[in-house]
Amino acid sequence: MESSYIYHITTAAGWEQAQIEGAYVAESLAIEGFIHCSTKEQVPGVLERYFKGQSNLVKLTIEKSKVTSPLIFELAGSINEVFPHIHGPIDLDSVISVEII
Prior knowledge:
The chain is an alpha+beta fold.
């Protein structure tokens, strides 16, 4: 059964900024055209590859049905896995929980 949720790792400061601005926007949106997300099973690998040794991180749990920007599952060729990408800002309403990690 497919999960109703996807996940995004960011800094606590990044999440605080989103609350001020009314939506979450990662740097990757301007650079790559989307915000990187993961399935639950992909989160440990993402943490290991991209966030090793970093602190002040949070994991956003995002309800897919509440995302208003285009959500597309796309192949990440570097590791040959399909990841969820949000092609626009993440509405705060779609974030159902924030976990400090």
